[in-house]
């Protein structure tokens, strides 16, 4: 069973929950989940990415929605102030026209903050996004617009034996390889929606096996190593965008 199967079974409810969880997951973990998801079902994941919102998107919501989020819980305005910490004065003063009745309290909250780490600021922004989605799910605000995938995306596709291609909705090749008994076998190539290579490697009876190589969207190698039964196994070499190498040992998908 793939990572996305349980999510798809719950259809729109599962889709919404997955999107919300991705929104508030750190960039490293989100990237790992995104890559695994794109390999499994690039169309489903393309809709996930279309729906992921950021703190910047929150700031562009109607002022009534923003006000409702910031007053829903006593601590929310305090946490919101952390999101703005370090911003230019002009950016903070823009809030005067958005939440005029809360401006005095917001200034007080900002004055209490002495120092924050980037991680603390990120955590505050994730909290605001969660609070926004909660009120949206409770239909207390309009919130963010959803862009749902077609209904057939939630159902398993049956593949004929032989060569197979998966296409993004923009017509770009998402993945290409061979199927046998509705399972991927042999050498496969997976792409970003721009057409640049995302990953390449072998499948055995539907599971990633042997050597795999993953790439950044610019074609630079991101990681390479071996899989066994769809789990990382042995030495993996991981590169940051500057080409710096980190070597990690895995056993059955777990770092050792």
From TrEMBL:
Organism of origin: Peredibacter starrii
- This protein's source sits in the domain of life called Bacteria
Query: This protein is called what?
Result: MORN repeat variant
Q: Name one Pfam family in it.
A: MORN_2
Q: Which InterPro entries has this protein been placed in?
A: MORN_2
List residues traversing the bilayer.
Answer: none
């Amino acid at each position: 069973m793939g990572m996305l199967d349980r999510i798809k079974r719950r259809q729109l409810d599962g889709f919404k929950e997955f999107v919300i969880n991705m929104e508030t997951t750190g960039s490293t973990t989100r990237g790992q989940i995104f890559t695994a998801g794109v390999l499994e079902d690039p169309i489903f994941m393309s809709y996930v990415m279309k729906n992921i919102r950021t703190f910047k998107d929150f700031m562009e919501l109607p002022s009534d929605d923003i006000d409702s989020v910031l007053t829903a819980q006593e601590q929310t305005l305090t946490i919101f102030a952390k999101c703005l910490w370090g911003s230019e004065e002009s950016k903070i003063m823009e809030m005067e026209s958005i939440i005029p009745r809360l401006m005095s309290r917001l200034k007080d909250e900002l004055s209490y903050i002495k120092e924050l780490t980037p991680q603390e600021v990120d955590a505050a922004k994730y909290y605001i996004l969660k609070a926004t989605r909660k009120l949206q799910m409770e239909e207390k605000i309009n919130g963010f617009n959803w862009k749902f995938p077609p209904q057939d995306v939630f159902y398993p596709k049956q593949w004929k034996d032989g060569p197979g291609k998966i296409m993004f909705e923009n017509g770009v090749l998402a993945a290409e390889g061979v199927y046998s008994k509705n399972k991927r076998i042999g050498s496969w190539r997976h792409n970003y929606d721009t057409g640049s290579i995302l990953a390449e490697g072998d499948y055995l009876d539907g599971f990633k096996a042997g050597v795999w190589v993953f790439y950044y969207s610019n074609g630079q190698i991101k990681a390479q190593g071996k899989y066994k039964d769809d789990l990382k196994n042995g030495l993996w070499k991981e590169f940051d965008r500057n080409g710096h190498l980190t070597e990690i040992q895995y056993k059955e998908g777990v770092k050792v």
